[in-house]
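Dear colleagues,

As part of the handover before I leave the project, I'm documenting each prediction I ran so the next person doesn't have to rerun anything. This entry is a single chain, and its sequence is reproduced below.
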Amino acid sequence: MYIAMVASECAPVAKVGGLADVIHGLSRELQRRGEAVEVFLPMYDCMSYDRIEGLEQCWADLWVPYYSDGIFCDVFRGRVDGINACFIKPRSRENFFDRGAYYGQEDDPARFAFYSRAALEFMYKSGRRPDVIHCHDWQTGLVPVALFEIYQALGMERTRVCYTLHNVHHQGITGPHILHQSGLGMHLMSPEKLGDNEHPGAVNLMKGGIVYSNFVTTVSPSYADEIRWTPLGHGLQSTLNTHAAKFGGVLNGVDYGTWNPEIDPQLPYHYTPADLAGKFRDQQALRQRLWLQNRFKPVVAVVSRLDAQKGIHLISHALFFALANRAQFVLLGSASDASIDAHFRALKARFNDHPDCHLELGYDEELSHLIYAGADMLVIPSAFEPCGLTQIIAMKYGTVPVVRATGGLADTVFDANYSDKPFEQRTGFTFNDFDEAGLESALGRAIGLWYDYPRYFSQLMRNSMHQDYSWKQPADHYLNIYRHILS
């Protein structure tokens, strides 16, 4: 079948977070299964153009309605890690995607509403008739709306839509002008359609995607329950419950072609569950690179965006707790919020000369691989986590995750002491309460096991490495969903 993957990110050309890895990994796995996959993206000026093969213009002067007029676009085509991709470049004074950034603009709803309409307009005019459009998060929430309201009557009546919610904390809540901009009627403002559940007079783009798509997924079974029945739904609970018959959680996967210590080209030493010697050499390389003393101590790591969702106060507390409990601490992360950035820069200055601590503020893909390989434990104390990829990556590298049991973290990490699973399926340490005592309980047990029962800690590492969180099973689920909505 022909699957059009419509998103705002795709690794490695346009990456902010885990969404980019999902688009890349799922598309590659579907393509390996013999499906025809084409990824659609805005043509950002800040993309990694060197990661696009054979980039060339394939369509000129694509006229896309915009308010009472229109904007001309050019469309370019290339290949990203073997995946066919189309990039939409508007030619307008608004410079929608020539801002030097992917997100964070005041007119983000207008930018991505235009992109959603432009992607459909290009499919329609170029004769593309996807069997399934798989669109992602609020940025593409208008795709199923415009497909049903406009393009089905123009010959795209057989195309179906699967819509995936990666994080309902961000929903694309905006004003009714967005409907006028996109050529959609004001009747969509009704509570049964795009009218926001908590802000009268506002349009909710994510809600539109939920209402109009043929099937809705989110990125883990636990998060699917949380956003229906707890405040983590951020006002969408009633909408999700109304459409519960077409809603489910599909756990994300990880591309083991990229994240695998047996073949990772960014590691100085490779290793397997049967032979962990390379991991210990990678740990020495990590210490040398970050100027940590070479002592018999576990390395506790954090690899994360630094924002409120990730539990900033608990990440900071993990630093002090690790150092007070005979461990080393390493952090790699970046903050877009100025106050959070200042907080971690102050910590970096304070511990700059500490022999057991290093904070690297920024994004460094190569260093992240070395940290996953060289650390003993990875701390993820999130307030909420729809799926999480870092804990899945860490497990593949034999780095034991210490996580708060929420969302996808609860679906993938099973406590060494308290899980009801057999020991060979236990993979880390978990805590429930979003506070320092909870973190100390889990991290303290992890450090204690490392020191007091090293044989059991090594087995926990191997347990983690044997888990299969590749894209094979999620791709099976998505293909079943595609077939279901096509039937």
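The radius of gyration is 23 Å. The mean pLDDT is 96.

All the best with the project,
I.
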